[in-house]
Amino acid sequence: MSPLQRQLMGMLRPYRDVLYASRDAANADALRDIYTLHLLDHIYQTRDRIIKNNTRLAKQQSNDELRDQGFTRPKVLVVLPTRGAVVRLVDALIRLCGCDSVQNRSRFEQEYGTMKEINTAHEATSKPADYVNYFAGNPDDHFRLGIRFTRKMMKLCSEFYSSDVIVASPLGLRTIIGARGDKKRDFDFLSSIEILIMDQADSFLMQNWDHVEHLLKHTNLIPQESRDCDFSRVKNWYLDGRARYLRQTLIFAEYLTPELNSVFNKYCSNIRGKFKLRRENEAGTINDVALPIQQIFTRIECTSVAKAADQRFEHFKEKVFPALQQSAVQQSRTMIFIPSYYDYVRIRNYLDERDINFVDICEYSEPSDISRSRTAFFHGDCDFMLYTERVHFYHRYRIRGAQHIFFYQLPEHAHFYPELLSVLSDAADGLRDLTISALYSRYDQLRLERIVGTSRALRMIQGEKPAYLFA
Amino acid sequence: MDVGEESSNDTQATFKSLVSGQAWEQPSPAANRTCLPHQNVIDPLCEACEKLGFKYATPIQRDAIPWALQGRDIIGLAQTGSGKTAAFALPVLQALWEKPSGLFACVLAPTRELAFQISETFEALGSVIGVRCAVIVGGMDMMSQAIALSKKPHVIVCTPGRLQDHLENTKGFHLKTLKYLVMDEADRLLDMDFGPKIDQILKVIPRERNTYLFSATMTTKVAKLQRASLRNPVKVEVSTKYQTVNTLLQYFLFFPFKHKDCYLVYLLNEMAGNSAIVFVRTCNDAQRLSLLLRSLGFPAIPLHGQLSMDKRLAALNKFKAGSRNVLIATDVASRGLDIPMVDVVLNYDIPTHSKEYIHRVGRTARAGRAGKSITLVTQYDVELLQRIEHILGRKLDSYAVDKDEVLILQERVSEAQRYATLVSSRPSGIVRAYAHCHGI
């Protein structure tokens, strides 16, 4: 066990909640092993207790109540972003569970892929390592899998209500949980979750965060049907509807975002306490920018979170865009990078109304449109390109031809910042005319500190000057 | 007038043990005004009674409680509104106090509303000793009931159908620890309708238990009583069979069938401001009459078996709270319900079982208060009326009305009749248009 694992085990064993916000490629396997070990330990312990009590009941040894179960069998929920991630988890489970045989293995490999696919994914691709790592294997994000443990056997693809572990993506759960008013919906299997694990939680932000909150809202509710549960053995806190106060929630993410913080504050109500672990980030990814380019960070004053988006847009309309248009007159092209899809729609409509010559690439664009847009932008047929963070996350296009990059808001993924800037080095006519500008507000502190470093971010947010220049 | 003194007439009641045949001595007249502590009821329960305003034991309580505390099975017969619920609740609670355990007592009741009412009594009386009650009736969520049962409440109050359902389908629920079984309105429960369910329930309850049967009217058929498998029971009777309370004025009103609605409207109009229960035979009638009366401006509300459980309870609560003071009910409301402020009971349809008559009129004139009942009789109902009079052992008085005054209402009533039929048969849009045109 590595020191990290040992330290984490000290938090997992007493069933405390953990938000671990510095997962990275180097420690991903260690983290997965440690939580797999913990969940197996939990399953075996509860199973042993139930079996022991069964024999006691059969012999009628005790008259006192034996309350050792939940409403339904599933007790561990692992939320993962892709099928590839499931393959890695199942690999860890098989390694650590000590079972003699694995049922349905070939069906699983057919549906989810194999470790071999994942290990060879980095060959023959030009994409960055983190991209390969995330999308290795089957990148499908709509799945749910039940895993059942018996004495000597592990069964994959088991029926939900007879499973011990449920592995699913937020989307996979969302489609089965359904919404109010749907005819067919089912979330009783989430009623007795005792350990909830979200690995790669940051990537759920790139999928659909609503689904995550939706599933958390439907976890540990009292089921709607009895599902053949033995009520005389259901633990009292389940009967009282207080199961969520005894659920352990483990969240592993690469970085911290306001969304993760809110989930951690709102849904992790474990009475045994909770830990939030985050990394001090002194350097920031801005140090990785290899080119000597002027980068101007401008602070916008926002009065509240609710108004932040509007105030940012006002600032863009009044201050930023006129300046960008002037530079467009001098035949220089600007890429506008927008993390949020809502902001993207707003700006696209704004540019549309003004008959601006622009192209746009977002996560919903058709591949043919994308390549047409990229060519047009590269050849200077249009002055502006709108580009969203999510499309970059999923495709990592190298958008060439830009002389300005304007960050409407800083990206959540800090390493996108140097990555986007590095494309500029392709510019033929030297680096002299290139400029980078970015907007930030005090609500962007987490993003900002990942890019410029913690102490600089603090100065930039608290300082009196509204603009900061990096060169 | 005080209940305790009033009932001295009833003490000619016979007490005898069904099986042993022993005659039981009549209590001396001095014991009429018995305080509960004299009956060996423990202090916490006496305090609870005092808080609820029960100072003296009613006759049925006075006679039944000592036997119950001796651990005997009881068949209890007393008039409507004479405190039967407390008569079985107190001994059960006292036994619970002495030896507390989960799923200690089960009370069966024929209707859901009655079940809720009984559980309220248990909770009120047992709050001091911390009793936990669960109501297990149809029309409610099975799951939350299963959860309530698995928390092992001390007392469960149920309707037979739903209890049987849980015994069959809820895993981990059993009544092996049951010590007391109470059947309220026992004659109704032992009837044909509930028979098979009761039999099945009795099969899974331990034989070592106490059984109490209570009602205002009791079945005479020994076979039925045997089904309840009593052991050496005491029969405690504080009224002769089929007796109504003295404070109740009973009338009948005879008129031709075609003016039935008209007479009902007239009577309700005469008694405007009083709260009344109108008993009808069918759910359909209940619905139709409440529409009719509402369109004439009476605050009427229906209560029948075809409504959802929420609506049934809501209807009852509205009536209890006084926001609606005419309750149009079928026989679901005829037994056991204790609504203190009912001034009049109107039998729109004459009850087909004369026993049911006793229960219906027993909704008013409860616990020593005065009350009035009027039975509407048409040319078709004469025989039924005579049967009731025979059972009561006396003639009812005719209610005096001025026929012409009644028939003045006919025109408005027939308008309302048309509206009521329209509402119940047509989609709501047309009805609204119709109501608009006619200013209803």
From TrEMBL, chain A:
Database matches in InterPro entries: P-loop_NTPase (IPR027417), UTP25 (IPR010678), UTP25_C (IPR053939), UTP25_NTPase-like (IPR053940)
Top-level taxon of origin: Eukaryota
Subcellular location: Nucleus, Nucleolus
Annotated GO MF terms: rRNA binding; U3 snoRNA binding
Main location: nucleus
Domain UTP25 C-terminal: 286-470
Keyword vocabulary terms for this entry: Nucleus, Ribonucleoprotein, Ribosome biogenesis, rRNA processing
GO biological process assignments: maturation of SSU-rRNA from tricistronic rRNA transcript (SSU-rRNA, 5.8S rRNA, LSU-rRNA)
UniProt entry tagged with the keyword Cell inner membrane: no
GO annotations of cellular component type: small-subunit processome
Any matching Pfam family: UTP25_NTPase-like
Domain spans labelled UTP25 NTP hydrolase-like: 15-274
Gene3D superfamilies per record: P-loop containing nucleotide triphosphate hydrolases
Function (record text): DEAD-box RNA helicase-like protein required for pre-18S rRNA processing, specifically at sites A0, A1, and A2.
Quaternary context: Component of the ribosomal small subunit (SSU) processome composed of at least 40 protein subunits and snoRNA U3.
Family per similarity comment: Belongs to the UTP25 family.
Protein's UniProt name: U3 small nucleolar RNA-associated protein 25
UniProtKB/TrEMBL annotation, chain B:
Keywords per UniProt: ATP-binding, Helicase, Hydrolase, Nucleotide-binding, Nucleus, RNA-binding
All copies of domain Helicase C-terminal, residue ranges: 263-407
Pfam families found in the cross-reference section: DEAD, Helicase_C
Keyword Nucleus among UniProt keywords: yes
Catalytic reaction equation(s): ATP + H2O = ADP + phosphate + H(+)
Domain Helicase ATP-binding: 65-236
Top EC category: hydrolase
InterPro entries cross-referenced by the UniProt entry: DDX47/Rrp3_DEADc, DEAD/DEAH_box_helicase_dom, DEAD_box_RNA_helicase, Helicase_ATP-bd, Helicase_C-like, P-loop_NTPase, RNA-helicase_DEAD-box_CS
E.C. numbers: 3.6.4.13
Domain of life: Eukaryota
Keyword ATP-binding: yes
Job description of the protein: ATP-dependent rRNA helicase required for pre-ribosomal RNA processing. Involved in the maturation of the 35S-pre-rRNA and to its cleavage to mature 18S rRNA.
Oligomeric and partner information: Interacts with the SSU processome.
Protein name: RNA helicase
Annotated source species: Syncephalis pseudoplumigaleata
